[in-house]
Amino acid sequence: MTNATESSLNAMSGRLQDWWRDVKTSMKTTTTTTTVGAPAAQPAPNVGSGRSLMLGSFELSDQLLGEGGYAKVVLGKNRETGEHVAVKLLDTRLDPSSGRAASSEAAIVREVAALRRAGSHVNVCGLLGYYRLGESGACHAMVMELCRGGELFKLVERYGAMDAAKIRPIFVGVLDGLRHLHAQGIAHRDLKLENILLAQPPGAAADAKALVPKICDLGLAHVHARGADGKTFAARDLTQFCGSRSYCAPEVMARLGYNGYAADIWSLGVCLFGLVSGFFPVDEASSRDWRYERIARLQYAHPSQSTTHAIYAFYQRPCPLSPALVNLLDHMLTVVPSKRSTLAEVTASPWVNGADQLPAKPPAPAAEAAVAAAETHELMRFDEEVDVSDYLQRSGGGSGTDVYRAAGLPEGAEAAPPVICRQRAEESVGIASALSL
Length: 437
Known about the structure:
alpha+beta; single chain; 13 helices; two-stranded antiparallel sheet; 8-stranded antiparallel beta sheet; 2 domains; Transferase(Phosphotransferase), domain 1; Phosphorylase Kinase, domain 1; globular; 33% helix
């Protein structure tokens, strides 16, 4: 390498930090690359004039698609096919002046490993290429499928509660994507409305039925090791607390051992509830939230009563959802993991298969009818018997931090449902893990 060439490449590498601060500056750097399925070093890329960067067969533009606390996403395209792609850019170096947190090297490696394990599926946002940028390799570029429909979260943000009939095909697609991930031994662990993107097939009409949901962001996913037979995956209780609090299953919030697949079912239930109701079922699934405390006690004391109807009753609202949808939500939002619906049961549920009514049941004997009537009477008294004075309820206060206030409502005050809002994923070592160190 000549001195002039080396000097030029060093200059381009030095500009990477400036580019990170403002994606619209020239993106010039040295590059090493690891393509999907074929780890190999690549020669230095061709650098476009001023406004583009070549990564293998992909060309990055300076058009910003999105930005979060850890990453930027810019528009790119495959130079061979002309197909547009989204490029997720992450930096593991902490730069206080940028106002952006550093990404975890381990989290990036984990996400790439999960995406490679997942492979290709119509309802999973696929990894098309992975590159490490800069002389130190501290910056990462993940080339992903482009989903022009944006996040599923934005539908709720824009329209509030949505017609269940329009949500059904989207939910079925998300369900298929999650079934694929679980079949590959992957527990997502941060399934939420922000992590479901919508793609629109070329030439499709611009309506909900044409949108294809794609699960994305596997940065907190757990990839189970293969079993002794090489075909199945070894069962393992997980202990790490991770995810977004309003979506986290009770067993995850408890920081104890949990089944990652069962936890995903709860999160999927929260997503469905939010889409059709316009608010979260609980603020968080722990005793700090009076809503959760009440539904946990309800499910224990009166398992035949509907959790979904009880949640609506908290706010003196009639439940507008069909019996089949209520039944599905009740079984997905079951506190005890062993009693929660499995993915197979969700897939086979009447609502997922197009029905709004449940199959007719034979009339209950008089004795059972009397028990049901007694349970209904107890449910009416349930709200009065719950002492919430010692519980805490979150109040973000617009700061984005976890601040809590007393959950007991002033006399005569009306409870308000938890508003669906963006939530930043969290992670920490579980109790069981910490004790084993």
